[in-house]
Amino acid sequence: MPMLKNYYVYIMASKSRTLYTGVTSNLERRVLQHRGKVFPGFTARYNINRLVHYEVFGEIVAAIAREKQIKSWGRAKKIALIESLNRDWKDLSAAWYGGSAGPRGASARTPELDSSPSLRSGSE
User: Fold this and answer.
1) b vs e for 11-42, b when ≥16 Cβ sit within 10 Å of the residue's Cβ?
2) In the chain, where are the structural domains located?
3) Could you tell me the CA-to-CA distances from 33 to 2, 44, 52 in Å, in that order?
4) Could you tell me if 9 and 117 are in contact, meaning their C-beta atoms sit under 8 angstroms apart?
5) How many angstroms separate the CA atoms of 19 and 75, rounded?
6) How far apart are CA 35 and CA 53, in angstroms?
7) Contact criterion met (CB below 8 Å) for 9 and 73
8) pTM
9) How far apart are CA 74 and CA 117, in angstroms?
10) Intra-chain end-to-end CA distance of the chain, in Å
11) Is the domain defined by 7-97 classed in CATH 1.20.120.520?
12) 38-84, pLDDT tens digit by residue?
């Protein structure tokens, strides 16, 4: 049986709430790259280092479509999405680096059966 893979659409923010939306197959690694400013560019320049929203998909095509959808939105709609699940803009990745589990296994959905997103909030 082939190994199931998850894909993540995520929104990161700076302390001043500058936003960045991306897609990845390894959310923990990608967040670390943003935090460590591994690649020069927008997120490094604006110190975007807090994960404030993410969605889990079982298919890359669905994840890319969702990323494009969110990127097409205005700022107000992105903020409404974040605050619908993370009102206080908590860094959802803060506990990952202290030994707590990351996003793997966090979704009760079966990725190959359900390509709709599994949403995460700071209240879990």
Assistant:
1) bbbeeeeebbbbbbebbbebbeebbeeeeeee
2) 7-97
3) 28, 10, 16
4) yes
5) 8
6) 15
7) no
8) 0.79
9) 20
10) 31
11) no
12) 988 999 999 999 999 999 999 999 999 999 999 999 999 999 999 99
